[in-house]
């Protein structure tokens, strides 16, 4: 057996050696997809089917690309020069550097990152004399990036007589012209310009088609529209196209990924080979059976069933908690037991749907003196939006707080430019004043322009007015008032996608943190506000573990993709949280939420714990959720329920659904039309059902509503 086929199972060998010109490898979680891609390249080189210079391999991170090249060289025991292995953006950059004239670029063009792109857009918006509050750089950045991912230039967009769209197209056009003048290229431009380079230069395209006769792509389910078009243009009708992906792990539609590309591949290459990798080398049989049952509820999938030759494993633990604090305590207790039995802390991961959920978990871990690390993000009190809100509170209580003043003077953007801020700093330094006093002094002396003085005066009045309203309020009400007056919620709402909404959730969680706060021995002598601010500063300043330390791993479910742990705890598995309330009424988004749950479940090697709470404090108030519909999609024989108090069992909710209605189901009402079931309450004839109809959400009594399942 050749080295390229060593230690591969039958299906992996079939994928590696396929003679089909185009192959789609459906690689399940833990099935060795990267191994297959590496060994496929080694096989082509070993068998003389390709030279290193004839291979183009695309993946999604520079780290993955470097690992792939290293594994191929180790497998063949020789260096490989001339082979192109990289990310979409990295390869596009290489093309544009080599063919800058044909791409209509300056030889010295520079790449700008997201921060520089935002700064440039601010200048463009200001230059167009637009209101910066209404036309924010972040929103324009999202619009332009999304259009570039779709392959659309400004002249290909239509405003449909919508004034807002017309203005946004104008910003896009002006921004593009500014980039051309300055020889600047953003990340979205890299791939779009590389696509246009091939599309508009047939001779060059022919050269690269003849060179790269083997094109291989990893994580194919995460490609967007432009990336697929770029690949399709290069491959043409005859090159070898080897795509590896898993439609059941497509969880990034919010950043442009199109799982539909896997179906497009099948339509565009009807003679392709479809190879399924279903043997899992990670998880126990119990965990895999649960994952298979869960994902089978999705309709638009190519279909596969994971299995293992390994151990059956223990039942999945399902904990029904009193509240989120009890849930966190239970997680810490379980991790402590596993650690006492010999597991390292780093072998346990706590996964959650939204980053705001980490706060209660972090508190519980700190109280237990258990080391932890927030993977792929900041600890709660280190997050920018949390620090912004606390800076407002600090300045309202102490006008001499210069760092707080500087942090929020233009957050959200309120038209106070860098020149004005520099004048405030200079006055403060020369006259030995605080920044607040310097600002008051400049306005009184009329040393600023009318516009700058007006904007600065509005900011000072905002702080004074809000500070007056804080008098006599409870701590959580203070935070609520601060956040309301700051404008931060509206500011982050304009940040498209889940990121802005997560920031808003974190601000609401800060209110919950204030409500829960009890001074400790280090802060009990201080006034309550000062104690809370000190607590937040200490928590933010306390360093978390590094990736090499032995500490519990905390992360969102999105951040967990590609990782694996001996023990996984998925918390907050409740309707409205997971699946998220933003996705419940959209069938496509609901399927993506289920795929996200599938990703979380398949991160576990040996033990999986899931939990929900009878009550949970979110957005500054208590609510009483139902267990997630996902829990009812696991076979009951795989689940060991652990209940406390009056928390509803998953079996009880199954009985509620036995009357023919289920969460997420499409139904028809003779008056209200088609709708989607959002919630169910009660049993039998007394069951109440909440349905989202086109005209709005309605509660109905199931026995009288005459709902027809669709």
Structural class determined from secondary elements: alpha/beta
Task: Note the overall shape.
Answer: globular
Task: Determine the number of helices (DSSP H or I, runs of at least 4 residues).
Answer: 27
- Biggest sheet: strands side by side, in what order? 11-12-10-13-14-9-17
Helix coverage percent: 40-55%
Ordered list of secondary-structure elements with their pairings:
Layout: H1 10-17, E1 22-27, H2 33-46, E2 55-59, H3 62-76, E3 84-87, H4 88-98, E4 110-111, H5 114-127, H6 137-149, H7 163-182, E5 184-185, H8 187-200, H9 202-211, E6 214-217, H10 225-235, E7 240-245, H11 260-268, E8 273-277, H12 285-295, E9 316-321, H13 324-340, E10 348-352, H14 358-367, E11 372-374, H15 384-397, H16 402-408, H17 418-431, H18 435-444, H19 450-469, H20 475-486, H21 488-493, H22 498-516, H23 528-541, E12 552-556, H24 557-560, E13 565-570, H25 587-601, E14 604-613, E15 616-618, E16 621-623, E17 639-643, H26 650-656, E18 666-669, E19 673-681, E20 688-693, E21 696-701, H27 702-705, E22 708-709
Parallel strand pairs: 1-7, 1-8, 2-3, 2-6, 4-5, 6-7, 9-14, 9-17, 10-12, 10-13, 11-12, 13-14
Antiparallel strand pairs: 15-16, 18-19, 18-22, 19-20, 20-21
Quick tags:
710 residues; alpha/beta; Rossmann fold; Arc Repressor Mutant, subunit A; 5 domains; 7-stranded parallel sheet; 6-stranded parallel sheet; 45% helix; globular
Description:
By secondary structure, this protein is of the alpha/beta class. Helices cover about 45% and strands about 15% of the residues. It has five domains: about 5-95 and about 190-280, P-loop containing nucleotide triphosphate hydrolases (Rossmann fold, 3-Layer(aba) Sandwich); about 110-180, Arc Repressor Mutant, subunit A; about 315-380 and about 545-650, P-loop containing nucleotide triphosphate hydrolases (Rossmann fold, 3-Layer(aba) Sandwich), CATH 3.40.50.300; about 380-540, Orthogonal Bundle (PCRA, domain 4), CATH 1.10.486.10; about 660-710, Thrombin, subunit H (Beta Barrel). Helix 10 (about 225-235) links the parallel strand 6 and strand 7 (about 240-245). The longest helix is centred in the N-terminal third of the chain and has 20 residues, at about 165-180. The radius of gyration is 28 Å and the shape is globular. It starts with 9 loop residues before the first helix and ends with a strand. The model has no long low-confidence stretch (mean pLDDT about 90).
